[in-house]
Design a protein that fits this description.
Length: 280
């Protein structure tokens, strides 16, 4: 992947970004279900410890609390990187993933009958009852007004004693700060606030943990590609028509100003909230 950014020197940007047409173009908008999203997602995974930190949290903090590891449901499984860690732990793993771009990745891990190529609400209500249901970094693509009904569906798949874990970037993540900078605070998705409201309304037990993760890149070109991916963590129609949608040059300058270190490394935080709902 190339983003034609150029090389940072001191406080200036040097290279093609400021000199060619591409730098003046607005950052691209892409749909979650297409191949371009998958390409950017894989690019992101190469430069972050986010998935490693997620698995570390599950293995240390949650799995020791689960008495039975029979069925797992990963709702929004992506390319299956997180799911792959659970395969030796659970007797049966099911994946829900609406993007065709990820189907071949998932079918390398699980049989066809265990993959549901649809949304959470499109999946059968009668899925096998699960001891653990995971929804990791999915709610960005679900309208806020549908968060409750989606969480209702996820909880409906839990067996007695089961747990639903929802993971989302914290409002304190540098990438959420970036979205607020260009699009406004109203597009920062805040999972903790929703979780506490939901737990009170539904009278369900909830716990919240927060963990740090990082994206580290050795060039502005790399970090810009990831920042573009993260800017797409809002509904595509919002980003496409928002007056604050930046050009590549504007986004690159903001990243360089705030996250460049003299050692030539760019580092942005991916603080993650882990919300756990328990069914007794």
């Amino acid at each position: 992947m190339s983003t034609s950014v150029g090389t940072p020197v001191d406080d200036n940007l040097q290279g093609s970004l400021l000199n060619d047409k591409e730098g003046k173009e607005l950052i691209p908008v892409f749909q979650y279900k297409n191949q371009l999203y998958r390409d950017y997602f894989v690019w992101f995974l190469k430069h972050t410890d986010e998935k490693k930190q997620i698995w570390d949290w599950f293995s240390r903090e949650l799995l020791p609390r689960i008495d039975t590891c029979d069925v797992l449901i990963d709702a929004g499984a992506g390319n299956g990187e997180l799911l792959s860690h659970f395969l030796p732990k659970f007797h049966r793993c099911l994946a829900i993933e609406p993007s065709p771009a990820f189907a071949s990745d998932l079918l390398k891990l699980i049989p066809d009958k265990s993959l549901y190529q649809t949304t959470i609400l499109g999946a059968p209500p009668s899925l096998p009852k699960a001891n653990l249901v995971i929804e990791s970094h999915v709610k960005y693509y679900i309208p806020l007004e549908e968060w409750e009904i989606n969480t209702d569906r996820l909880i409906s798949w839990l067996a007695p004693g089961g747990c639903l874990v929802e993971v989302l970037k914290s409002e304190h993540s540098d990438f959420q700060i970036m979205i607020a900078e260009f699009l406004g605070q109203e597009y920062v998705r805040e999972l903790q606030h929703f979780a506490w409201q939901y737990s009170r309304k539904k009278n369900i037990s909830v716990e919240v943990d927060t963990r740090q993760a990082w994206v580290t890149c050795t060039s502005l070109e790399m970090m810009l590609g990831i920042a573009i991916f993260m800017m797409n963590d809002v509904p595509s129609d919002v980003l496409e028509h928002h007056p604050g949608r930046p050009t590549r040059e504007q986004l690159a300058r903001w990243i360089h100003k705030n996250y460049y270190s003299p050692g030539g490394v760019y580092r942005m935080s991916c603080v993650q909230d882990f919300v756990q709902y328990f069914v007794l």
